[in-house]
Design brief:
With about 350 residues, this protein is of the alpha/beta class. About 40% of the residues lie in helices and about 15% in strands. α1 crosses α7 (about 230-240) and α2 crosses α4 (about 100-120). Bound molecules: nicotinamide-adenine-dinucleotide (NAD).
Length: about 350
């Protein structure tokens, strides 16, 4: 049997459970594993949104907590008798990181280390850390290179660097204290409940309001896109069959440029091309990331199931149908894109 496989019902703590991926994961988990106990632990920053969990609130415990508060984290782990942590909580917006890097290092590095320490004090069966393709830096647009689990860390932005620091902390707790850790580094996610500051919801909500879609001048920069539900099945595979101490890449292999995304969103909504507006690029903007996810596919039998064009059209339609969800959030977005060229 694979090391770390849990047969008994799990008792999960999902940090960042009120955010985009965390809330999708909580929903996925209670649907697939109704016998498990799920605690969503979230500080409810501007990006955390309790209504994301509205349809599953009666099946979970919600704790309003900060991962940087070690005593609250430790108390929650003990009170809820947690055996498995899935750690999503983070500051996640690259643009905000350029303006407020200290916040990112506090939450993503120190917060992760604080949570690791609480886990060590309590003793848990698995600490699964959610990381990103961005820790490896960026790729040239014309290269055949892809990032493997052995690629060197070369973060270029405060967000990337803070996630890289978190990954190092997780590995250090695994090696030094034998905390049973696993890590997944995932490509860009899209799907319902993504805060309207990230590119697909920003383009979609702008188009719905007949406002301009602001494209960074590097319109050919591209990302590998994975539907959030496919990310959830990947984490499930690692929790159930992954080997303690290992890192697994999660990616679809499907790339799309900023220009292609704008075109797909406009076509799905039947809006004109004239809504596209080119604005100055963000400092340090990475050109491209692409993961080799063959380890997860061959060793754990995972594969993504949602085709990009289908998933994107469904996501755009979800935003069209859920204006009441995103409209109040838009006012909470801390960064207004478009002003980098004039920033000091
Ligand atoms: P998000 O910003 O939507 O959600 C982050 C959540 O963490 C929010 O609910 C926020 O309230 C919570 N949080 C922030 N600081 C906290 C703190 N100190 N204590 C407790 N909770 C806190 O982000 P997301 O897009 O859902 O990303 C989740 C995780 O996945 C992050 O670790 C991110 O780095 C990683 N990731 C995201 C993507 C992506 O494309 N979105 C891709 C790869 C990896």
């Amino acid at each position: 049997m694979d090391e770390g496989y849990t047969l008994a019902p799990m008792r999960l703590l999902v940090t960042g459970g009120a955010g985009f991926i965390g809330s999708n994961f909580v929903r996925y988990w209670v649907e697939q594993h109704p016998e498990d106990h799920v605690v969503a632990y979230d500080a409810l920053t501007y990006a955390g949104n309790r209504p994301n969990l509205a349809d599953v609130e009666d099946r979970i415990v919600f704790v309003h907590g900060d991962i940087c508060d070690g005593s609250q984290a430790e108390k929650t782990l003990r009170d809820e008798d947690i055996d498995t942590i899935v750690h999503f909580a983070a500051e996640s917006h690259n643009s905000l990181a350029v303006l407020n890097p200290g916040l990112f290092f506090r939450t993503n590095v120190l917060g992760t280390q604080t949570l690791l320490e609480a886990s060590r004090q309590v003793g848990i069966a698995r600490f699964h850390h959610i990381s990103t393709c961005e820790v490896y830096g960026d790729l040239a647009l014309d290269t055949d290179e892809v990032f493997s689990e052995d690629s060197p860390y070369r973060p270029r932005t405060p967000y990337n660097a803070s996630k890289a620091g978190a990954d190092h902390a997780v590995r250090a707790y695994g090696e030094t204290y034998e905390l049973p850790v696993t890590i997944t580094n995932c490509s860009n996610n899209y799907g319902p409940y993504q805060f309207p500051e990230k590119v697909i919801p920003v383009f979609t909500t702008s188009a719905l309001d007949d406002k301009n879609l602001t494209l960074y001048a590097t319109t050919e920069n591209r990302r590998e896109w994975l539907h959030v539900r496919d990310h959830c099945t990947a984490i499930e595979a690692v929790l159930q069959r992954g080997k303690v101490g290992e890192t697994y890449h999660v990616g679809s292999g499907v790339e799309a440029s900023i220009m292609e995304i704008a075109d797909l969103v406009l076509a799905t909504l039947g809006k004109p091309d004239s809504l596209k507006e080119i604005v100055p690029d963000r400092p340090g903007h990475d050109r491209r990331y692409l993961l080799d996810s063959s380890k997860l596919r061959t060793q754990l039998g995972w594969a993504p199931e949602i085709p990009w064009e289908v998933g994107l059209a469904e996501t755009v339609e979800w935003y069209a149908a859920n204006r009441a969800w995103w409209e109040p959030l838009r006012a909470r977005a801390p960064v207004v894109e478009g002003g980098w060229g004039t920033a000091g």
